[in-house]
Amino acid sequence: MKRYSTIMSVLLTLALPVAGSCADAPKAPDKADAASVESIKDSMSKTGHSMMGGSAPAAGAADLSPSGKVVETMDGGGYTYANLERDGKKTWVAFSTLETRVGDKLAFKDCMEMPNFQSKALNRTFDSILFCGQPVLKPTTAAKQVSGKKSPGSGSAAAAGKIQVEKATGANAYTVAEVFAKRGALDGKQVVVRGQVVKVSTGIMNKNWLHLQDGSGSEKSKNHDLVVTTKDLAEVGDVVTVSGTLAKDKDFGGGYKYSAIIEKGSVK
Hints:
By secondary structure, the chain is of the alpha/beta class. The chain is 21% helix and 37% strand. The chain contains five helices and twelve strands. The protein has a five-stranded mixed barrel. The radius of gyration is 22 Å and the shape is elongated. It starts with a helix and ends with a strand.
């Protein structure tokens, strides 16, 4: 009987870390990536990988506890995808959706590597990506969101460096700052804006959300970052010309509120 009690104690001790690790696992993505998740599980069982980690990666393998500065980020399929840079090396990670911006610093523990992973939600294949739980070092954006109770929809995005994009041409062409300054007169009218994509969020309210900056305006005045809703896609860093209908003081609910936004945008 004493021996039985000892065995049960050992088993319970071993089980506790497992339960804690499972609680940190990212939430399931939407249906678009369901098949991809199943392929991850299948690969885990075949290769012996586990979300719980516990052993050091083999020589030449990816660091399963990555950290670094976010140089690119996008949302889709229930996940936030972030490209981390550290000491000149870049690593893609995916985790449950959390507002993240270029310039944020993130750190993770015990991730799982998936080579040649295809995200149907993003229509993109990653040569290598790490699936992780929530970051142990969370983005400054998320900290502000908690303290200020601000929705991820209405936040502006931080650019990786100085942006200077030439203004589009034509009668309906405006800079980002001009759109904010003239939003009252432009409400409900067609506008054309040229800028650099600094953030992309896909599949929110059945739309893709692009943040554009062209170097005009300032973060202090909150007239430097213009959001566009569109069915089209673009990548962070792309310089695009967008045409669409300008709306002022648009409130989608749930904190998605904008003093100026381009809707039904066409991206070129």
